[in-house]
């Protein structure tokens, strides 16, 4: 597996995202910058410049036309992927911690931070895709405050009327995107902060990671926990590998190995776990600090990790990865 | 004796893995059908009862 090191951020990475073709990788960082890279060779294609604070989150639509970002500068921005121009800026009273497009690219959901007398809020915006994208509505189509523990991650669920949220308490919930009603929840999905939430290609299940050192797969319809991956370290990110029965987990370092390894060695790992058997099958080292964010290309041919060390590492899977069947012959449904 | 025990354990493990894969596949097929019908009905209640027999048949193949 040949790694490509993407150097272009000066501070820690907060989120990385592939476009639907998998040929572009978007990255955002505490250095206020969003970058886009060619997945194939790691060359930087461009930069989305304009935020005045840490960029916490990004998402790209399925056509690679619009990019949306959320920042500590209390704005959410819409960008033209191709020209790099900022098309629209929404302003809020607090930082934007998570953004996500709906499956049909028509809507964006965002979470704003709870701070300075402001409750954490979820807003849904209709995206006007006509014209050049600069003519957006300032007002959200819905706006609600989840009661109880604050939401930290979110995504659209099975359909465009449903928002899945992960909370500080470890709770997972589904909200009606129009009314803001909590439709379903699992209060004990995790025992600590949910740090990431990524859906399967068909959106029928999703994986979450948590500071409680586990990652879990949940059924999108019922919120039942289907699988649990128990590690030794608080997790920052979890991703599903299309085409192979693996999940990729990233976080800090085992408490046990901290004393024995030097920070200079790049020992922070992305862990590969078998999706069905809930066992670790491999690790890829490289980062000089915790792994903050992991994404797998929708085609399943490569993955990328973004670290606290400010680097993005892209790994193209080699033939042995596709050939490997560590547990023998099983036909496993995607 | 050790070898006998080992092969016993591995037979058990293999059976367990087979069961886990079967369970996963059964859930995936059920989930895909129910979700497809839910999507067709615009997020309303799933009308998936008529799908049941087909899904059972698929489980058998595994």
How would you summarize the topology of this molecule?
The complex is a heterodimer of chains A (334) and B (62).
Chain A: E1 2-6, E2 13-18, E3 24-29, E4 34-38, E5 44-48, E6 55-60, E7 66-71, E8 75-80, E9 86-91, E10 96-101, E11 107-112, E12 121-126, E13 142-144, E14 151-156, E15 162-167, E16 172-176, E17 182-186, E18 194-199, E19 205-210, E20 214-219, E21 225-230, E22 235-240, E23 246-251, H1 255-258, E24 268-274, E25 280-287, E26 291-296, E27 302-307, E28 312-316, H2 319-323
Antiparallel strand pairs in A: 1-28, 2-3, 3-4, 4-5, 6-7, 7-8, 8-9, 10-11, 11-12, 12-13, 14-15, 15-16, 16-17, 18-19, 19-20, 20-21, 22-23, 23-24, 24-25, 26-27, 27-28
Chain B: H1 2-40, H2 52-61
Instruction: Give me the count of strands of chain B.
Output: 0
SSE order of chain A, one letter for each helix or strand: EEEEEEEEEEEEEEEEEEEEEEEHEEEEEH
Structural class of chain B, please? mainly alpha
Q: What's the arrangement of strands in the largest beta sheet of chain A? A: 1-28-27-26
Class per helix and strand makeup of chain A: mainly beta
Largest interface: A-B, 21 and 19 residues
Alpha carbon gap, first and last residue of chain B: 34 Å
Oligomer: heterodimer
What proportion strand of chain B?
Answer: under 5%
Largest sheet of chain A: 4 strands, antiparallel
Poorly predicted spans of chain A: none
Sheet with most strands of chain B: none
How many helical stretches of chain A? 2
Secondary-structure element pattern of chain B, one letter each: HH
Assign an overall shape of chain A: globular
Please count the helical segments of chain B: 2
Mean pLDDT of chain A: 95
């Amino acid at each position: 597996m040949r790694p490509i090191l993407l150097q272009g951020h000066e501070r820690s990475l907060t989120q990385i995202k592939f476009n639907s073709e998998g040929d572009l990788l978007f990255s955002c960082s505490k250095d206020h910058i969003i970058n886009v890279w060619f997945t194939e060779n790691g060359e930087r294609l461009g930069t989305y410049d304009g935020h005045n604070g840490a960029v916490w989150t990004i998402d790209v639509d399925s056509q690679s036309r619009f990019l949306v970002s959320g920042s500590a500068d209390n704005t959410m921005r819409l960008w033209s992927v191709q020209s790099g121009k900022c098309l629209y800026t929404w302003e809020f009273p607090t930082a934007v911690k998570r953004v996500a497009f709906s499956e049909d690219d028509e809507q964006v959901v965002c979470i704003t931070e709870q701070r300075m007398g402001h409750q954490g809020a979820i807003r849904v915006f209709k995206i006007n895709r006509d014209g050049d994208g600069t003519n957006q509505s300032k007002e959200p189509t819905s706006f609600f405050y989840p009661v109880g523990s604050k939401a930290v991650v979110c995504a659209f669920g099975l359909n465009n009327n449903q928002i899945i949220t992960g909370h500080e308490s470890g709770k997972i919930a589904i909200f009606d995107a129009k009314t803001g009603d909590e439709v379903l929840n699992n209060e004990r999905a995790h025992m600590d902060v949910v740090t990431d939430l990524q859906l399967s290609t068909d959106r029928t299940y999703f994986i979450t990671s948590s500071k409680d050192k586990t990652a879990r797969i949940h059924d999108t319809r019922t919120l039942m926990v289907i699988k649990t991956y128990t590690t030794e370290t608080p997790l920052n990110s979890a991703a599903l590998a299309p085409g192979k029965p693996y999940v990729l987990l990233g976080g800090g370092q085992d408490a046990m190995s901290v004393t024995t390894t030097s920070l200079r060695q790049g020992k922070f790992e992305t862990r590969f776990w078998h999706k069905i058997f809930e066992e670790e099958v491999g690790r890829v080292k490289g980062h000089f600090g915790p792994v903050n964010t992991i994404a797998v290309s929708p085609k399943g041919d490569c993955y990328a990790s973004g670290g606290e060390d400010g680097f993005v590492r892209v790994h193209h899977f080699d033939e042995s990865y596709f050939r490997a069947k560590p547990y023998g012959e099983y036909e496993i449904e995607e | 004796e050790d070898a006998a025990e080992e092969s016993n354990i591995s037979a058990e493990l293999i059976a367990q893995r087979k069961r886990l894969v079967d369970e996963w596949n059964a859930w995936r097929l059920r989930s895909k059908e129910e979700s497809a019908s839910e999507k067709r009905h615009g997020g309303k209640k799933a009308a998936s009862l008529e799908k049941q027999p087909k899904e059972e048949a698929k489980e058998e193949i595994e």
